[in-house]
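Format notes (please read before filing issues)

Several people have asked whether sequences and structure tokens are stored in separate files. They are not. Every record keeps both together, in the order shown below: the sequence lines, then the token lines. Line labels are part of the format and must not be stripped during preprocessing.
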Amino acid sequence: MKQIEVSIMGQSYLLGCPDGGEERLREAVAQVDREMCAIRDSGKLKARERIAVLAALNLAYILTDRPAPAATPPAAPTGNANEAQPSPEYLDQLIQRLDQALDSDGHLI
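Then the structure lines:
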């Protein structure tokens, strides 16, 4: 296992990566970075932890909304960055739900 340095929302992380999995890990990091930056840039949230939770919820929602993959190899990415972006209305709803869930003590864990 090797370690690679990545950046998410401007912060560097050193991550363990299985041999041969570097490209896949970098793609995952890029997707997480896009989600977190989109939420931050919407101006609705400033706390990194809340942005991370909301991004995780967005990505999980996208994954559960997709049909099960077929036995064929995955298609090459199209390069369209807006392909899997949630709508502003959806982001607002998730922010409200996150705020309600954290309202009691303000802590994520």
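For reference, the curators noted about this record: Residues 63 and 70 are 14 Å apart (CA to CA). The first strand starts at residue 2 and ends at 8.
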